[in-house]
Amino acid sequence: MTYAIEPGYTHGTPEKTGILLVNLGTPDAPTAQAVRPYLKQFLGDPRVVEIPKVLWWLILNGIILNVRPKKSAAKYASVWLAEGSPLRVYTEKQAIMLQGYLAERTRAPFAVEFAMTYGNPSIPDALRRLKAQNCQRILVVPLFPQYAASSTAPVFDQVFAELQKMRNMPAIRTVKHFHDDAGYIKSLAANINEYWAKHGRPEKLVMSFHGVPQYTLDKGDPYHCECHKSGRLLAEALGLTREQYVVSFQSRFGRAEWIKPYTTATLLELGRQKTRRVDIVCPGFVGDCLETLEEIAMEGREDFQHAGGGEYHYIPCLNDRDDWMQALTDLVIDNLQGWLNLPDAADREKGRLLALAMGAK
């Protein structure tokens, strides 16, 4: 096996701890030309679509990649920011803020990078940047509160696949999920309460999570259960009764049965019931993206109001809220126990001199 070239090293250089934040992904531009390779990478991952490989290759390359890029590009264009893709913009802000918040709480050397499972910046590139900074320990933090084999697991797949190419592997820790983390729940509740303080309260709060096929639940994926626990804890933090909120699942794809209730069906039913006001929030996303800003904020409004519903309010994701960033910093520090140590300058100098005496450059 041929290993990747190791970055240069100078004896006596202090080791750093790396933190890698990872979100799902985004095309580089809201165009069909940029969306197509992104969709090919995303939908070509067997973790994402569990259909026999040969059959799915024919469907993906023969139909989907010839039809969907143009439609998806138009949707991306409707939410694209001046700085770029919303998901990339918010994930980069979160990485920058985490760097600053950690610096306030430790003097140990560390580095923060962010990456996307699909698209850019890639996980392999981010790992190489951390290694170039002499990060000998890396904490991988998928920004998915609820674990799913189709979202969190691909992050770990790519990380460990990249490690196989390294001669000098860093130590790795991973955060599997934080669906019931107290800081995450508290920041979600604060975000919603602040919105209600400004805009009043709804008749019904819809908590919409990304959907997954029903067979994944039947085969042991914990995602469905973790979403419901997050929803229950959030409802308790908001003081809601069971009648005042509903947990639903969005982004259904294909003809297979997905976990229910579907968000679209839920909004249509609430509209037919002439619900005076619905507020909707997406607790499974820590940064706004196509699925929240277009599918939920735009398409969801149309479904609800065309069915006869009244006011429709989309409550933004946590994005770069201070309380959320403090919670994320707490989560990272909790998972870095024993790694945030100050380097011993005298010991490093002693090691450097001994290495030089033995012929090191």
TrEMBL record:
Principal subcellular localisation of the protein: cytoplasm
Residue numbers binding Fe(2+): H210, E291
Pfam families, A to Z: Ferrochelatase
Group of enzyme by EC: lyase
Biological or metabolic pathway of the protein: Porphyrin-containing compound metabolism; protoheme biosynthesis; protoheme from protoporphyrin-IX: step 1/1
One Gene Ontology CC term in the entry: cytoplasm
Reactions catalysed, as given in the entry: heme b + 2 H(+) = protoporphyrin IX + Fe(2+); Fe-coproporphyrin III + 2 H(+) = coproporphyrin III + Fe(2+)
Gene Ontology BP, a term: heme biosynthetic process
CDD domains documented for this protein: Ferrochelatase_C (cd00419), Ferrochelatase_N (cd03411)
InterPro entries tied to this protein: Ferrochelatase, Ferrochelatase_AS, Ferrochelatase_C, Ferrochelatase_N
UniProt subcellular location: Cytoplasm
Record-level Gene Ontology MF annotations: ferrochelatase activity; metal ion binding
EC number: 4.98.1.1
Keyword Protease set for record: no
Keywords for this protein: Cytoplasm, Heme biosynthesis, Iron, Lyase, Metal-binding, Porphyrin biosynthesis
Family: Belongs to the ferrochelatase family.
Functional note: Catalyzes the ferrous insertion into protoporphyrin IX.
PANTHER family reported in the protein's UniProt record: FERROCHELATASE (PTHR11108), FERROCHELATASE, MITOCHONDRIAL (PTHR11108:SF1)
Protein name as it appears in the record: Ferrochelatase
Taxonomic source organism: Gallionella capsiferriformans (strain ES-2)
Record gene name: hemH
